[in-house]
Amino acid sequence: MTGKVIAIANMKGGVGKTASTIGLAEALAAEGDEVLVIDLDPQASASMCLAGDALLSELIEGGRTIDAFLEDYLFRERKIKFDQCIRAHVSEVTHLSQQLSISLLASSPALRLMERELIYKLTKLKFDLNAIVNRLLEMMREQLKSTKRSFNYILMDCAPGISALTEVSIRLADLVIVPTIPDTLSTFGLEAFCKSLWTGPLAGSSPLRKPKHPHVLITRRRNINEHTKTATIIRNECSSSRPSFAVFRTEIPEKAAISGALGKIGSFRTFANKWGQVASIWGDLANETREILNGR
Amino acid sequence: MTFYYGPPLQMSPPDPTAQKLAETMLALLPQDGTPVLNRVMRVMLSRELERLVEPKAFFEARDRLFQAGKIGRLRGQGGQLFLNQKSSRAIQVTPTPSEVEWTEAKLMEPLRRFLEGPFREGLDLPKGSECIVHNTSAMGPVRGRWARPDFILVSAMRFKLMPGSQIDVHSFELKTEMGATDLAVYEALAQTRFTHFGHLVWHLPNGSKAEARLAEIQNQCEEHGIGLIRMPDPNRPEECLILVDPVRKQTLSATVDGFLESRLTSAQSQQVRRAIGGEPV
């Protein structure tokens, strides 16, 4: 098995990054794939949705989080491995009476401080921003090498903004999913995001590994004129001579069922029961993701 | 799209011993005896032990606990298990003696007596009204899901001062001691497609293990506007307790009319018409 890495990122907050991560992870796992979710957001929402309060507390106390790993690895010279921090069988959700095979590398609020400390320490060692990102990139690449063997898909839920870890995830990923609400402000943010990492002059001159072409996922879609118009503009980008991004055929609607499902922690639902009418949409997204990554 | 769940792709470490699984299962079961679905318990074990718990290992551990009298089992809907409060006494897999004695069929007559007696009195119908209690458990479409209440009660009355009349139709879904789950509430709710009031009648003896589910069922009934009647002793139907009053549903008169037409006998229909002063059709 060689797991494909998927980064779910957008500079803008509230566009449905975590919902897309959880929905896609569960849909992939419901079809038999082994999935790892790496939570890179200090808000730890994906960790909470997957593990629940009690288990997440246990993971944080036991030092099995991404921030604890980075601290040990980079500052304490304790060369532990990613795999030691990954918690297997975290999902409460079942499909056809089987637990979804989802593992988690959790996050915690300490990640925010950890990232700041990391940049501060490396800057003192005369690292510039590119060198910091490169150092993290190499470390993550090395770690993922063995982890990839145990999973079909590794999903990275990035924090809003472009932190060093988000940039690393995007540069490492085989597929970058950019959830975007089809409204004016979100589209404006999308343009800025693409310029930062793909199309702008800074992106072109970066010595770092070039990230894969981003794929926009239209999220929180409502049946209103503004969304219809903006979604068309976003889709038209694909037909331009040098498109900045590709667009998923699948669209994630704005539904109470989605926020409701994310809040169903501790209820041990089935996949279909948890997501209701949205379950098939996540299934479509999973199929399209497979198509993009594996050509099937 | 259809989801497929194939065999796990990742090699799992060997299953923990049945003893370890059994101990963990005991620790995870709610102390108050609330039942847990087998499916859910397997997930809880996998999460706790951080490894896949295969069905074979799970059932082996569960049976070990059951034989030792530490847990009880409920059949149906994938099966459930619960912590036995008195772990020294083995719980029978077969239905409890009271369940054997009081099957749904046997509970029908006590329910009829309750409906025709205390329940009817509680409706406080004016003089000249009609109240018909009718067994409809075997009536209705063959393939109609949740369309056959065990009993219906039809009250027909003319107002004392105001012109006009009113017909109220109640449906009753009867459940045995171990038969009441939240699904039973939905069943009673579904029957209000055709009636104005839906009731769940539950044979729940005092001190029954199934009492652990009472709060949840009561809560579900309140949420859905379904009445809940507890029958503690079928030998004394007059002691049935109304725990939750139902909320009147806005079922279309045409729908109720069609339902009654297919359920009531012609004599019963005449009774209703007489009570409301309508002309025979």
Which tags fit this structure?
heterodimer, A: 296 residues, alpha/beta, Rossmann fold, 7-stranded parallel sheet, two-stranded antiparallel sheet, 13 helices, 9 strands, 51% helix, globular, B: 281 residues, alpha+beta, Arc Repressor Mutant, subunit A, Trna Endonuclease, Chain: A, domain 1, 2 domains, 6-stranded mixed sheet, 3-stranded antiparallel sheet, 9 helices, elongated, disordered N terminus
Question: Can you tell me about this structure?
Answer:
The complex is a heterodimer of chains A (296) and B (281). With 296 residues, chain A is α/β, with parallel strands linked by helices. Chain A has 13 helices and 9 strands. Chain A has helices at 17-30, 45-61, 66-75, 82-85, 110-124, 129-147, 164-172, 184-199, 201-205, 225-238, 256-262, 271-275, 279-294, and strands at 4-8, 35-40, 94-95, 98-99, 102-105, 153-158, 175-180, 214-221, 246-253. In chain A, the strands form 2 sheets. A 7-stranded parallel β-sheet of chain A has the order 5-2-6-1-7-8-9, sandwiched between helices. A two-stranded antiparallel sheet of chain A has the order 3-4. Chain A is globular and about 55 Å long. By secondary structure, chain B is an alpha+beta fold. The chains are: A alpha/beta (296), B alpha+beta (281). Chain A binds chain B through residues 1, 27, 30-34, 55, 87-92, 94-99, 101, 150-152, 268, 271, 280, 283-284, 287, and chain B through 1, 3-10, 37, 39-40, 42-44, 46-47, 49-52, 78.
